[in-house]
Amino acid sequence: MIRFEHIRKEYKNATPLKDVNGVIDDGDVVTIIGPSGTGKSTLLRMINGLERPTSGKVFFNDEEITAPDYDIVKLRRKVSMIFQSFNLFNNMTVLDNLVVPQMDILNTDKEKAREKAITYLKKVGLYQQSDRMPSQLSGGQKQRVAIARALVMDPEVILFDEPTSALDPTMVIEVENTIKWLAQSKTTMVIVTHDMRFAREISTKIFYMDEGEIYEEGSPKKIFDNPTRSRTKAFIANHRILDLHIDGADYDLEKINASIQEFRRSQHLTDRLTYNITSVIEELIIQTIFAHDPKAKADLSLFFDGEKLEYKIKFDGKRFNPVDEKSLSMTIFTGSIEDYSYRYHQQSEKPNSLKFNSK
Predict the structure, then answer these.
(1) Which domains, and CATH codes, for the chain?
(2) How confident is the model over 183-198, as pLDDT tens digits?
(3) Contact 235/210 with Cβ under 8 angstroms?
(4) CB 113 within 8 A of CB 101
């Protein structure tokens, strides 16, 4: 069990942690979310002794690890940390990255350390990469090696600091699946992440950090579907918004689709709602607005309230209400929306304004 009591952390120009109190029980998978600069990673590093509080206490299994005479080496035999930058030994093979820490910290015999390393490389699907150097691996593979390296130490707790933020989107899933596998084994984990979809899927408990404290905590359902405090509500609502800027004939369709798919994953959108977004962009913006004015620039802001999609679209140029066009594109578009309204604000940079909801 991990316990924080009145943790405060002061730096020269900032005080990210003011009064942090909380408990992480054995077997918990806790994700720490919140705005940038709220001390999420700082709190995580305190569990591993990489940061010390200005005041307050941190306990691990009822021992105060912030006490001046506490043996940090003892702590690190029980708590492993996975960094977003991997922190592998670049001058060692993948296999040696797992063998050497066992020998140095656990005093394990080299042959036993090697057998254990091979076992865990097989579990994360990287045994075939044993003799490669880290520079020869993809980002996702490096992160899985880092996870395997943590596991060979038989930790009681694994800490993850933004484990997928440095990865290409195509590599995120393989790392997330590895972490989900760990969760199924009841390994205690604490994860700092900006990925709300992943936080919702993986967690038993969420810490939302703001104003220098654990501002609100609870189950994923409580935090994401029914937060009670104002800043939590605003933060969650902000992560339900998709903003796209589309520049006439110069639009990047691949980038737009990637943004839609990420929004779909984070909000658990159905196929129908995802199709609705794609249809609005293709039929309303590309086929109608841009057909009317190929140089037009459009801003789309989309809010998902948990049930329906609420659209706001602004575009430049002369007065033009797309639904006045009697085209196939507009027939498809109007068949999938409701509560449509159009306004023209002559003094605005993008004077044409649309609002509507999905059905």
Answers:
(1) 2-234 (3.40.50.300), 241-358 (3.30.565.10)
(2) 888 889 999 998 887 8
(3) yes
(4) no
